[in-house]
TrEMBL record:
SMART domains assigned to the protein according to its UniProt record, in alphabetical order: KISc
UniProt keyword annotation of Nucleotide-binding present: yes
GO biological process: microtubule-based movement
Alphabetized UniProt keyword annotations: ATP-binding, Coiled coil, Nucleotide-binding
Entry keyword annotation includes ATP-binding: yes
A GO molecular function held by the record: microtubule binding
Top-level taxonomic group: Eukaryota
Name this protein carries in UniProt: Kinesin motor domain-containing protein
GO cellular component: microtubule cytoskeleton
Amino acid sequence: DAPNGSFQRIGKLSLVDLAGSERLKRTEVQGERLKEAQHINKSLSALADVVAAKDRRMSHVPYRNSKLTHMLQDTLGDQCRTVIIVALPPTRANLDETIHSLQFSARLNCIAFEPPRTEAPTRAWMQEPALKPLQEDADEAVLAAKAEADRLRCANERLRAENEKLRAQAEDREAHIKEQERRFKDIQERLEETQRQLAAQKQLCLELIP
């Protein structure tokens, strides 16, 4: 824990693609392929030994028997979560390998890993007499901040109400202006119609005068 009571937790994610076991008599590989297949089978055998030791809750788990198990020690140890995905070929010719893979994954699934420990920051430092005035100042600052927040919230609500009132007044004024414009347009249209009628009557009078 840090002096201020905080802590830092670091996690690790491992994604491992395990090669399938090789039946050397059936594949009949030679040369470099043969050496590679032998290394694969040896690593998978060491992994099976680790799983067996974990399943039997043995005090010694042979993680160092191969590079594979040594690398996966954090993944297969306590305080971890392990998930295995098995790819199985849908052919009768690979039935033995399929059964072996399922048995291996079932054994791994039966291992009871301990759940991760939960930690919480310690607050023992808050009880030290030398830091008590600081805690009191912090409490007063929190209360002052809450009071200021309440004041600002009330002021915000008051401004919002005034804003709504001004908006309503503006809408009323806009509606009044539109109504006045409509009335002015009607008066202008009637005036133009009256002027046309007067012009027509004037023309008629001129035609009647000899």
